[in-house]
Protein backbone atom coordinates (compact mmCIF):
# COMPACT_ATOMS: atom_id res chain seq x y z
CA UNK A 1 0.00 0.00 0.00
CA UNK A 2 1.29 3.45 -0.94
CA UNK A 3 0.12 6.98 -0.24
CA UNK A 4 -1.25 8.37 -3.50
CA UNK A 5 -2.60 11.79 -2.47
CA UNK A 6 -2.52 14.31 0.37
CA UNK A 7 -5.46 16.73 0.40
CA UNK A 8 -5.69 19.52 3.00
CA UNK A 9 -9.19 20.91 3.57
CA UNK A 10 -9.77 24.04 5.67
CA UNK A 11 -12.92 24.67 7.71
CA UNK A 12 -13.39 28.26 8.88
CA UNK A 13 -14.90 29.36 12.19
CA UNK A 14 -15.33 32.92 13.54
CA UNK A 15 -11.97 32.82 15.34
CA UNK A 16 -9.78 30.05 13.93
CA UNK A 17 -9.40 27.71 11.00
CA UNK A 18 -9.39 23.92 11.36
CA UNK A 19 -7.26 22.08 8.82
CA UNK A 20 -8.20 18.52 7.90
CA UNK A 21 -5.65 16.44 6.00
CA UNK A 22 -7.03 13.56 3.95
CA UNK A 23 -4.38 10.95 3.09
CA UNK A 24 -5.39 8.62 0.26
CA UNK A 25 -3.84 5.30 -0.77
CA UNK A 26 -3.55 3.36 -3.98
CA UNK A 27 -5.74 0.64 -2.45
CA UNK A 28 -8.69 2.96 -1.88
CA UNK A 29 -8.33 3.45 1.88
CA UNK A 30 -8.19 7.01 3.15
CA UNK A 31 -7.42 8.42 6.58
CA UNK A 32 -7.86 11.85 8.09
CA UNK A 33 -5.91 14.02 10.50
CA UNK A 34 -6.61 17.48 11.88
CA UNK A 35 -4.77 20.47 13.30
CA UNK A 36 -5.80 23.92 14.54
CA UNK A 37 -3.11 26.36 13.41
CA UNK A 38 -3.99 29.75 14.90
CA UNK A 39 -3.04 32.58 12.53
CA UNK A 40 -0.65 30.41 10.44
CA UNK A 41 -2.90 28.23 8.29
CA UNK A 42 -1.39 29.43 5.01
CA UNK A 43 2.10 28.53 6.25
CA UNK A 44 0.87 25.07 7.21
CA UNK A 45 -0.65 24.55 3.76
CA UNK A 46 2.57 25.66 2.08
CA UNK A 47 4.66 23.24 4.10
CA UNK A 48 2.24 20.36 3.43
CA UNK A 49 2.46 21.04 -0.30
CA UNK A 50 6.24 20.70 -0.27
CA UNK A 51 6.32 17.81 2.19
CA UNK A 52 3.86 15.85 0.06
CA UNK A 53 6.20 16.05 -2.94
CA UNK A 54 9.43 15.36 -1.09
CA UNK A 55 8.42 12.96 1.69
CA UNK A 56 4.84 11.70 1.75
CA UNK A 57 3.66 10.59 -1.70
CA UNK A 58 4.66 7.01 -2.42
CA UNK A 59 5.28 6.20 1.25
CA UNK A 60 3.84 3.17 3.01
CA UNK A 61 1.27 4.49 5.53
CA UNK A 62 2.06 1.54 7.82
CA UNK A 63 5.68 2.70 8.16
CA UNK A 64 4.76 5.63 10.38
CA UNK A 65 8.08 5.93 12.18
CA UNK A 66 10.00 5.97 8.91
CA UNK A 67 7.74 8.61 7.34
CA UNK A 68 7.67 10.96 10.32
CA UNK A 69 11.43 10.73 10.87
CA UNK A 70 12.09 11.63 7.24
CA UNK A 71 9.80 14.65 7.56
CA UNK A 72 11.45 15.58 10.87
CA UNK A 73 15.12 15.24 9.86
CA UNK A 74 15.62 15.34 6.10
CA UNK A 75 14.82 19.03 5.52
CA UNK A 76 17.96 20.16 7.38
CA UNK A 77 15.84 22.63 9.33
CA UNK A 78 15.07 23.04 13.01
CA UNK A 79 11.58 21.65 13.68
CA UNK A 80 8.96 24.36 14.08
CA UNK A 81 5.35 24.38 15.22
CA UNK A 82 4.31 24.40 11.57
CA UNK A 83 6.50 21.43 10.67
CA UNK A 84 5.46 19.41 13.73
CA UNK A 85 1.79 20.18 13.12
CA UNK A 86 1.96 19.03 9.51
CA UNK A 87 3.74 15.85 10.57
CA UNK A 88 1.05 15.26 13.18
CA UNK A 89 -1.87 15.66 10.78
CA UNK A 90 -0.35 13.22 8.30
CA UNK A 91 0.72 10.81 11.05
CA UNK A 92 -2.77 10.70 12.58
CA UNK A 93 -4.23 10.00 9.13
CA UNK A 94 -1.81 7.09 8.71
CA UNK A 95 -2.95 5.56 12.02
CA UNK A 96 -6.53 5.95 10.77
CA UNK A 97 -5.62 4.06 7.58
CA UNK A 98 -3.83 1.31 9.51
CA UNK A 99 -6.74 0.82 11.89
CA UNK A 100 -9.20 0.59 9.01
CA UNK A 101 -6.99 -1.88 7.15
CA UNK A 102 -6.70 -4.11 10.22
CA UNK A 103 -10.31 -3.48 11.35
CA UNK A 104 -9.34 -2.32 14.84
CA UNK A 105 -9.53 1.02 16.66
CA UNK A 106 -6.29 2.98 16.81
CA UNK A 107 -5.96 2.60 20.58
CA UNK A 108 -5.55 -1.16 20.08
CA UNK A 109 -2.49 -0.41 17.92
CA UNK A 110 -1.10 1.85 20.66
CA UNK A 111 -1.10 -0.89 23.30
CA UNK A 112 -4.78 -1.41 24.02
CA UNK A 113 -7.14 0.19 26.47
CA UNK A 114 -6.06 0.85 30.06
CA UNK A 115 -9.37 2.50 31.07
CA UNK A 116 -13.02 2.21 30.15
CA UNK A 117 -13.93 5.91 30.50
CA UNK A 118 -12.03 9.06 29.47
CA UNK A 119 -12.70 12.05 31.75
CA UNK A 120 -13.03 15.42 30.01
CA UNK A 121 -13.04 19.06 30.95
CA UNK A 122 -14.84 21.91 29.22
CA UNK A 123 -13.19 24.91 27.60
CA UNK A 124 -14.57 27.67 25.36
CA UNK A 125 -17.63 28.05 27.62
CA UNK A 126 -17.06 31.61 28.92
CA UNK A 127 -17.85 33.63 25.79
CA UNK A 128 -19.60 36.19 27.97
CA UNK A 129 -18.99 39.55 29.63
CA UNK A 130 -16.17 39.45 32.19
CA UNK A 131 -18.46 39.95 35.17
CA UNK A 132 -19.00 37.64 38.16
CA UNK A 133 -22.69 37.26 37.33
CA UNK A 134 -22.05 36.24 33.71
CA UNK A 135 -19.22 33.84 34.59
CA UNK A 136 -21.35 32.33 37.37
CA UNK A 137 -24.22 31.65 34.96
CA UNK A 138 -21.93 30.26 32.27
CA UNK A 139 -20.23 27.92 34.76
CA UNK A 140 -23.65 26.68 35.85
CA UNK A 141 -24.33 25.69 32.24
CA UNK A 142 -21.11 23.66 32.14
CA UNK A 143 -22.03 21.79 35.30
CA UNK A 144 -25.51 21.13 33.92
CA UNK A 145 -23.91 19.37 30.94
CA UNK A 146 -22.35 16.88 33.35
CA UNK A 147 -18.74 18.07 33.20
CA UNK A 148 -16.79 17.46 36.39
CA UNK A 149 -14.09 19.99 35.43
CA UNK A 150 -13.80 23.24 33.49
CA UNK A 151 -11.00 25.62 32.50
CA UNK A 152 -11.00 29.41 32.46
CA UNK A 153 -8.68 32.35 31.82
CA UNK A 154 -10.01 35.16 34.04
CA UNK A 155 -7.20 37.62 33.28
CA UNK A 156 -8.57 39.58 30.32
CA UNK A 157 -5.84 41.08 28.14
CA UNK A 158 -3.18 40.82 30.85
CA UNK A 159 0.48 40.88 29.82
CA UNK A 160 3.37 40.53 32.30
CA UNK A 161 1.56 42.57 34.98
CA UNK A 162 -1.99 43.36 36.06
CA UNK A 163 -3.42 46.52 37.56
CA UNK A 164 -4.86 46.26 41.05
CA UNK A 165 -8.33 46.57 39.54
CA UNK A 166 -7.70 43.68 37.15
CA UNK A 167 -6.29 41.53 39.93
CA UNK A 168 -9.44 42.02 41.98
CA UNK A 169 -11.61 41.32 38.94
CA UNK A 170 -9.81 38.04 38.17
CA UNK A 171 -10.25 36.95 41.78
CA UNK A 172 -13.95 37.85 41.71
CA UNK A 173 -14.49 35.78 38.55
CA UNK A 174 -12.92 32.65 40.04
CA UNK A 175 -14.89 33.21 43.26
CA UNK A 176 -18.10 33.36 41.19
CA UNK A 177 -17.24 30.17 39.32
CA UNK A 178 -16.50 28.27 42.53
CA UNK A 179 -19.81 29.45 43.99
CA UNK A 180 -21.58 28.26 40.83
CA UNK A 181 -20.12 24.77 40.58
CA UNK A 182 -19.53 23.89 44.22
CA UNK A 183 -16.57 22.08 45.71
CA UNK A 184 -16.81 18.81 43.75
CA UNK A 185 -16.02 20.21 40.29
CA UNK A 186 -12.45 21.03 39.30
CA UNK A 187 -11.55 24.53 38.12
CA UNK A 188 -8.39 24.70 36.01
CA UNK A 189 -6.98 28.22 35.84
CA UNK A 190 -5.48 29.11 32.47
CA UNK A 191 -2.83 31.84 32.48
CA UNK A 192 -1.90 31.63 28.77
CA UNK A 193 1.77 32.43 29.43
CA UNK A 194 0.79 36.01 30.24
CA UNK A 195 2.86 36.92 33.25
CA UNK A 196 6.30 37.58 34.59
CA UNK A 197 7.37 35.44 37.54
CA UNK A 198 6.35 37.96 40.20
CA UNK A 199 2.80 38.45 38.90
CA UNK A 200 2.28 34.75 38.21
CA UNK A 201 3.41 33.89 41.73
CA UNK A 202 1.18 36.55 43.29
CA UNK A 203 -1.92 35.45 41.38
CA UNK A 204 -1.35 31.77 42.13
CA UNK A 205 -1.11 32.57 45.83
CA UNK A 206 -4.23 34.76 45.71
CA UNK A 207 -6.30 32.17 43.83
CA UNK A 208 -5.12 29.10 45.72
CA UNK A 209 -7.96 29.50 48.25
CA UNK A 210 -10.41 28.42 45.55
CA UNK A 211 -8.59 25.05 45.32
CA UNK A 212 -8.08 24.96 41.54
CA UNK A 213 -7.05 21.67 39.95
CA UNK A 214 -4.02 23.32 38.33
CA UNK A 215 -2.51 26.59 37.19
CA UNK A 216 -1.66 26.45 33.50
CA UNK A 217 1.24 28.11 31.66
CA UNK A 218 1.80 30.91 34.21
CA UNK A 219 4.73 32.40 32.24
CA UNK A 220 5.66 32.40 28.54
CA UNK A 221 6.98 29.05 27.30
CA UNK A 222 10.38 30.07 25.93
CA UNK A 223 12.28 30.29 29.24
CA UNK A 224 11.60 27.23 31.36
CA UNK A 225 13.96 28.44 34.08
CA UNK A 226 11.41 31.18 34.87
CA UNK A 227 8.66 28.55 35.07
CA UNK A 228 10.86 26.66 37.53
CA UNK A 229 11.14 29.87 39.60
CA UNK A 230 7.34 30.12 39.80
CA UNK A 231 6.97 26.41 40.51
CA UNK A 232 9.47 26.56 43.37
CA UNK A 233 7.81 29.64 44.87
CA UNK A 234 4.29 28.18 44.78
CA UNK A 235 5.07 24.51 45.38
CA UNK A 236 4.17 24.63 49.11
CA UNK A 237 0.58 25.46 48.11
CA UNK A 238 0.23 21.94 46.74
CA UNK A 239 -1.52 22.96 43.51
CA UNK A 240 -0.05 21.50 40.30
CA UNK A 241 1.54 23.57 37.55
CA UNK A 242 0.56 22.45 34.03
CA UNK A 243 2.30 23.37 30.77
CA UNK A 244 3.42 22.05 27.41
CA UNK A 245 0.98 23.10 24.69
CA UNK A 246 3.65 25.34 23.11
CA UNK A 247 6.47 22.82 23.35
CA UNK A 248 6.75 20.97 20.06
CA UNK A 249 9.78 18.65 20.10
CA UNK A 250 11.23 16.06 22.49
CA UNK A 251 14.18 18.37 23.08
CA UNK A 252 11.95 21.06 24.56
CA UNK A 253 10.22 18.52 26.78
CA UNK A 254 13.61 17.21 27.92
CA UNK A 255 14.36 20.55 29.55
CA UNK A 256 10.94 20.65 31.23
CA UNK A 257 11.40 17.17 32.65
CA UNK A 258 14.95 17.72 33.84
CA UNK A 259 14.07 21.00 35.54
CA UNK A 260 11.00 19.40 37.17
CA UNK A 261 9.36 22.76 36.52
CA UNK A 262 5.78 21.43 36.23
CA UNK A 263 3.57 18.59 37.39
CA UNK A 264 1.23 18.04 34.43
CA UNK A 265 2.31 17.80 30.79
CA UNK A 266 -0.02 19.27 28.19
CA UNK A 267 1.55 18.13 24.95
CA UNK A 268 -0.78 18.82 22.03
CA UNK A 269 -0.91 15.71 19.83
CA UNK A 270 -1.48 17.86 16.75
CA UNK A 271 1.54 20.11 17.42
CA UNK A 272 4.11 17.58 18.65
CA UNK A 273 4.27 15.21 15.70
CA UNK A 274 1.24 13.02 16.28
CA UNK A 275 0.14 10.04 18.33
CA UNK A 276 3.39 8.10 18.46
CA UNK A 277 5.44 11.15 19.40
CA UNK A 278 2.91 12.01 22.13
CA UNK A 279 2.96 8.44 23.39
CA UNK A 280 6.75 8.68 23.75
CA UNK A 281 6.47 12.01 25.60
CA UNK A 282 3.90 10.48 27.95
CA UNK A 283 6.18 7.52 28.70
CA UNK A 284 9.08 9.88 29.34
CA UNK A 285 6.91 11.98 31.66
CA UNK A 286 5.92 8.84 33.53
CA UNK A 287 9.56 8.33 34.49
CA UNK A 288 9.25 11.62 36.43
CA UNK A 289 5.84 10.63 37.92
CA UNK A 290 4.14 13.31 35.82
CA UNK A 291 0.62 13.09 34.41
CA UNK A 292 -0.41 14.11 30.90
CA UNK A 293 -3.49 16.16 30.06
CA UNK A 294 -3.25 16.74 26.29
CA UNK A 295 -4.02 20.22 25.03
CA UNK A 296 -6.77 20.15 22.40
CA UNK A 297 -8.45 23.06 20.60
CA UNK A 298 -9.28 20.94 17.54
CA UNK A 299 -12.60 19.88 16.12
CA UNK A 300 -13.80 16.29 16.35
CA UNK A 301 -11.01 14.57 14.38
CA UNK A 302 -8.27 15.93 16.62
CA UNK A 303 -10.43 15.14 19.63
CA UNK A 304 -10.95 11.58 18.39
CA UNK A 305 -7.18 11.15 18.05
CA UNK A 306 -6.75 12.46 21.61
CA UNK A 307 -9.25 9.91 22.90
CA UNK A 308 -7.25 7.05 21.40
CA UNK A 309 -4.12 8.30 23.13
CA UNK A 310 -6.04 8.70 26.39
CA UNK A 311 -7.51 5.22 26.15
CA UNK A 312 -4.07 3.60 25.87
CA UNK A 313 -1.87 5.76 28.13
CA UNK A 314 -1.38 4.87 31.79
CA UNK A 315 -0.45 8.33 33.13
CA UNK A 316 -3.29 10.16 31.40
CA UNK A 317 -5.27 12.58 33.62
CA UNK A 318 -8.07 14.36 31.70
CA UNK A 319 -8.94 15.50 28.18
CA UNK A 320 -9.61 19.08 27.09
CA UNK A 321 -12.77 19.53 25.00
CA UNK A 322 -14.01 22.68 23.25
CA UNK A 323 -16.72 21.38 20.98
CA UNK A 324 -19.69 21.43 23.33
CA UNK A 325 -19.42 25.21 23.76
CA UNK A 326 -17.21 27.11 21.28
CA UNK A 327 -18.65 26.61 17.79
CA UNK A 328 -20.47 23.41 18.72
CA UNK A 329 -21.67 23.16 15.11
CA UNK A 330 -18.19 21.97 14.05
CA UNK A 331 -19.11 18.54 15.43
CA UNK A 332 -21.13 17.99 12.25
CA UNK A 333 -17.92 17.77 10.22
CA UNK A 334 -17.78 14.06 11.11
CA UNK A 335 -20.01 11.15 11.93
CA UNK A 336 -19.09 8.57 14.54
CA UNK A 337 -17.65 10.91 17.18
CA UNK A 338 -18.63 9.93 20.75
CA UNK A 339 -20.19 12.53 23.04
CA UNK A 340 -19.42 13.45 26.63
CA UNK A 341 -21.78 11.49 28.88
CA UNK A 342 -23.74 13.93 31.07
CA UNK A 343 -23.87 11.28 33.79
CA UNK A 344 -20.16 11.50 34.58
CA UNK A 345 -18.50 14.07 32.28
CA UNK A 346 -16.51 11.36 30.48
CA UNK A 347 -16.17 10.03 26.97
CA UNK A 348 -16.72 6.34 26.27
CA UNK A 349 -13.93 4.52 24.46
CA UNK A 350 -13.89 5.26 20.73
CA UNK A 351 -15.45 2.57 18.58
CA UNK A 352 -15.08 1.53 14.97
CA UNK A 353 -11.91 0.85 13.01
CA UNK A 354 -9.21 3.50 12.78
CA UNK A 355 -10.16 6.76 14.47
CA UNK A 356 -13.81 5.74 14.22
CA UNK A 357 -14.97 8.95 12.51
CA UNK A 358 -15.89 9.77 8.92
CA UNK A 359 -15.23 13.20 7.44
CA UNK A 360 -18.00 15.16 5.68
CA UNK A 361 -16.19 17.11 2.97
CA UNK A 362 -19.39 18.84 1.85
CA UNK A 363 -19.70 20.33 5.33
CA UNK A 364 -16.19 21.77 5.04
CA UNK A 365 -17.00 23.22 1.63
CA UNK A 366 -20.01 24.97 3.19
CA UNK A 367 -17.75 26.58 5.85
CA UNK A 368 -14.66 27.70 3.94
CA UNK A 369 -11.32 29.04 5.13
CA UNK A 370 -11.69 32.45 6.85
CA UNK A 371 -9.20 35.30 6.84
CA UNK A 372 -9.22 35.95 10.60
CA UNK A 373 -6.65 36.81 13.25
CA UNK A 374 -7.14 35.68 16.85
CA UNK A 375 -5.39 37.70 19.58
CA UNK A 376 -5.40 36.52 23.20
CA UNK A 377 -3.95 39.85 24.31
CA UNK A 378 -6.77 42.14 23.19
CA UNK A 379 -9.75 43.25 25.25
CA UNK A 380 -12.75 40.91 25.15
CA UNK A 381 -10.89 38.10 23.40
CA UNK A 382 -13.00 35.65 25.43
CA UNK A 383 -15.89 36.19 23.02
CA UNK A 384 -13.76 34.28 20.47
CA UNK A 385 -14.61 36.59 17.59
CA UNK A 386 -11.37 37.20 15.70
CA UNK A 387 -10.36 40.37 13.95
CA UNK A 388 -11.49 40.61 10.34
CA UNK A 389 -9.09 41.99 7.70
CA UNK A 390 -9.44 45.64 6.81
CA UNK A 391 -11.45 46.39 3.67
CA UNK A 392 -9.33 47.03 0.61
TrEMBL record:
Residues 132-237 form the Mandelate racemase/muconate lactonizing enzyme C-terminal domain. One of its GO terms (molecular function) is lyase activity. Keywords: Lyase. The keyword DNA repair does not apply. It comes from the Bacteria. PANTHER family: D-GALACTONATE DEHYDRATASE, D-GALACTONATE DEHYDRATASE-RELATED. This is Dehydratase.
Amino acid sequence: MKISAVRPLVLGTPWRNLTYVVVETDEGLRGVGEVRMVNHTESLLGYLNEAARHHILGSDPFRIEDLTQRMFRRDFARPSEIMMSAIAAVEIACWDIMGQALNVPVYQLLGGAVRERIPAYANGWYTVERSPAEFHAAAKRVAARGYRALKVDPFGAGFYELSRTEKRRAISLIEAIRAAVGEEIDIFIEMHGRFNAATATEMIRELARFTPGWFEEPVPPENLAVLKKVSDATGPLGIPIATGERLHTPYEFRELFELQAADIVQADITHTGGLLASKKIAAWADAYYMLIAPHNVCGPVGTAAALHLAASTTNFKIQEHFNDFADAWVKDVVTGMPEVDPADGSFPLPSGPGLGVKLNEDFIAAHPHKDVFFDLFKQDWQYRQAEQPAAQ
